[in-house]
Design goal:
This protein is α/β, with parallel strands linked by helices and 221 residues long. 32% of the residues lie in helices and 23% in strands. It has six helices and nine strands; from the N terminus they run βαβαβαβαβαββαββ. α4 links the parallel β4 and β5. α1 packs parallel to α6. The longest helix has 24 residues. It binds glycinamide ribonucleotide (GAR). Glycinamide ribonucleotide (GAR) binds next to α1, β5 and α6.
């Protein structure tokens, strides 16, 4: 089946730890797909080194080289089309995509965000969660629509937040879960189990557990 395996294009801007978790999950066959190209808008992003270490093709497309978002995104679409990408995974890609890009890959673009959407969209969201005093935050994998962090949600994971948290500590706590839920969301897509209906994502063979419950602080200690 290797020949027909789903092809993922990953867009990055930074360290690429999520890219790493996706590549590793593919290698372990936890995702029935493979990463076929990594694209970075940042020339020296460590993510590029991670792709190189796996022997995967990577392309740098600096946004400063393009007069506007539309022409930049057309270049991205050209590269992703050339590599016959089925799914685009944004992994710390710090740019908003144009409607033109999203039309080209309709229902086939995912993003991971380090908060429990719709709380804390946008930037600096871990510090914002700490400053707000929430007891929980987490991460969200969602399909990308034309808004900023507004698309239909696929998976969320929850971590506790403490009033004396540092941004770094919360970031690490959330990242550990990012590295679990992003590969899982991609595998659900690869298995053809996801259907988008309006704002909702339905998952085929979805196991429910209505006893699932978390409080912070604990109720009984
Ligand atoms: C991750 O925490 C991801 O959720 C966040 O950037 C980090 C990238 O880390 N993405 C966003 O904030 C998107 N707006 P990584 O490069 O190590 O995967």
């Amino acid at each position: 089946m290797v020949g027909s395996m789903m092809r993922i294009g990953v867009l990055v801007s930074g360290s690429g730890s999520n890219l790493q978790s996706i590549m590793d999950a593919c290698e372990r066959s936890e995702i029935d797909a493979r990463v076929c190209v990594v694209i970075s808008n940042v020339p020296h992003a460590y993510a590029l080194e991670r792709a190189r270490q796996k022997g995967l093709p990577s392309v740098v497309v600096p946004h400063a080289d393009y007069p506007d978002r539309a022409s930049y995104d057309r270049k991205l679409v050209d590269i992703l089309t050339e590599y016959r990408v089925d799914l685009v995974a944004l992994a710390g890609f710090m740019r908003v995509l144009t409607p033109g890009f999203l039309r080209a890959f309709s229902g086939r673009v995912m993003n991971i965000h380090p908060a429990l959407l719709p709380s804390f969209p946008g930037l600096d969201v871990r510090q914002k969660a700490i400053d707000y005093g929430v007891r929980f935050s987490g991460c969200t994998v969602h399909f990308v629509d034309e808004g900023v962090d507004t698309g239909p949600i696929i998976i969320q994971a929850v971590v506790p937040v403490y009033p004396d948290d540092t941004e770094e500590a919360l970031k690490e706590r959330i990242l550990k879960l990012e590295h679990k839920i992003y590969p899982k969301a991609i595998q659900l897509f690869a298995q053809g189990r996801l259907t988008i209906e309006g704002r909702k994502v339905f998952i085929r063979d979805y196991e429910k557990d209505e006893s699932l419950c978390l409080t912070n602080p604990f109720l009984n200690r």
